[in-house]
Amino acid sequence: MPSAWRNVALIGRFSDPRVAESALAAAAHLEGRRLAVLVVDGTEATSLEAAGARVRRVADTELAGLADFVLAIGGDGTLLYAARLVAHRGVPLLGVNRGRLGFLTDVLPQDLVASIDAALDGACDVDERPLLEARLERAQGERLTQLALNDVVLQKHETGRMLDFESWIDGRHVNTHGADGIVVASATGSTAYALSCGGPIVEPHLDVVVVAPICPHTLSDRPIVVPRRSTIGIVLIDRPGTRAHITADGIVMADLLVGDRLAVGPSAHSIRLLHPKGYDYYRLLRSKLHWGRGSHGHTR
């Protein structure tokens, strides 16, 4: 175990019996290794304590400064939430899959204890994933920023009403879109919302970003791949009834108004994912996307 590690944070929706089962096993094992178990103060902490776990409650704003290591138990949404808490401190994360697909939470429940031990013993592979930064500049001068591991998304407020907007890359006009919105996804996020918009699967260590329109009105308006260092600018075109909002990793950042400018570019921050030895991204894709099922190809 890294000599300075003393506190391990558990993140998850512990009111879910499957998540609670893994969290209780993790808490007991960590206690046996003489480590303090931290949880974010709130109703989820209460449900874990009620099940018999010995934990220390901390505010979500304090967790990054106290935790040496984070165990995210649930689906990819849980890991994205954990990443938001610790991105500015570089605290390593290990994801245990008790959700559905789990592209980021890749540890199986039956491998929980062995994977915790591997992390504590310094036997995991460290996987640095860069973040995106969304910057919103209001017409009246107000500025907002938000980090994202997967994607920054512009979407319409109402169903049945299309957005009209322009996209720019590094100050160069790219297109005028009529669509339900647009996704700017990191390589990590290429298997999230951008994939359902027809975007490509991108190997997570490629230094690129995917820009994918959502349900574009014009069939030729296709996803494009640009360097990660690029800044993608988006502005709304003034149309009656135009209402749109911006999300970062699924969390609402703000409304985008006519006259505002949204810019999505590289962040100086990254997160550190931990993988047990033998992690294979392509094996993960085969498992999650059910590639090769029923074929006579490679089965190992």
Give a verbal description of the structure:
It is a single chain. The protein has 300 residues and is of the alpha/beta class. It folds into two domains: 132 residues, Probable inorganic polyphosphate/atp-NAD kinase, domain 1 (Rossmann fold, 3-Layer(aba) Sandwich); 137 residues, Probable inorganic polyphosphate/atp-NAD kinase, domain 2 (Tumour Suppressor Smad4), CATH 2.60.200. Helices cover 21% and strands 38% of the residues. The strands form two sheets. Strands 1, 2, 3, 4, 5, 6, 7, 9, 10, 14 and 17 form an eleven-stranded mixed sheet that branches. The protein has a six-stranded antiparallel sheet with strand order 13-12-11-8-15-16, with no helix packed on it.
